[in-house]
């Protein structure tokens, strides 16, 4: 019995946590500390905070993987959720390992906008598109993140003659099309952008760089 108890403890999943980007939400965990724990299989359950019964996640029941997609299960974005995981190996089951409480609206990371750059001889026009959520309208198109948050766009310009880190904030606001004027012909400029959520004081990562020579 002692050996079983040791195995139970040593295969128990570690660091169970939610990761979420634009409401695409996955539960991640690490294997237990025993070396053989890498061969364990895992079982995932979830529930809304305050509910008494846990729901099985059928796609993540007896899986070798250490990640489980719970996007669909966490689609009520204002609700707080929990996830939990247990492991099995050689007929022995570990206890459950619990995640922290996770509220999608508060905790999902928001991605950067899509950036398109059109240049003329002295100006750059920047077109911005908000990231999409995984949720769809009745007609099938994906709902943009601007439906869920008051998003601002931050647009930075990098003059390639200067230091790479020298990003100048050229615009902050809600416009999807902006014009940056009075630039120098023959100079290479790059544009990067972020989304910013004032209410949560949170910025996305930078978009990929779009460069152009006027």
Automatic annotation (TrEMBL):
Quote the function comment for this protein: Receptor for IL22. Binds to IL22, prevents interaction with the functional IL-22R complex and blocks the activity of IL22 (in vitro). May play an important role as an IL22 antagonist in the regulation of inflammatory responses.
Molecular function via GO: cytokine receptor activity
Record-annotated Interferon/interleukin receptor domain positions = 108-212
From the Swiss-Prot or TrEMBL record, give the protein name: Interleukin-22 receptor subunit alpha-2
Q: Which SUPFAM superfamilies match?
A: Fibronectin type III
Task: Cite a single Pfam family from the UniProt record.
Answer: Interfer-bind
Keyword Cell membrane among record annotations:
no
Please list the residue ranges annotated as the Fibronectin type-III domain: 6-96
